[in-house]
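Researcher: I'd like a structural prediction for the single chain below. Treat it as a standalone chain; there are no partners to consider.
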Amino acid sequence: MADVNRGNRPLSPHLSIYRPQLTSVTSIFARITGVALLGAAFLVVWWFLAAASGPEYFAFVNGLMTSWFGDLVMFAALWAVCYHFLSGLRHLYWDTGRGFEIKKAERLGWMVIVGSGVLAVLGALVL
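Model: Treating it as a single chain, here is the predicted structure.
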């Protein structure tokens, strides 16, 4: 049967109306960093395959990976690992049924953001 009231139903809030919350943005960004980590893993696999292919090809790929751009990409991947890890810990905490109060949830979001930056810088300095 055709839906005769199709044009009369209210619309869901759109991005022009809805103000994203910190918790939703950080949760969505956890998914984005997960996909980005897959791309970084492909780069590392490419580097290993180049090492197995021969010295000329490895020199080319190693030159890309150790350039300033490669260092930037690898630092971004390190930050993504830290962010994804801390965000996963936050979700595990939420799975226990705690931390859903607005102030606590926002504090956890800021802890993930700041903590991932601090861990990434510390990791880069150590590595």
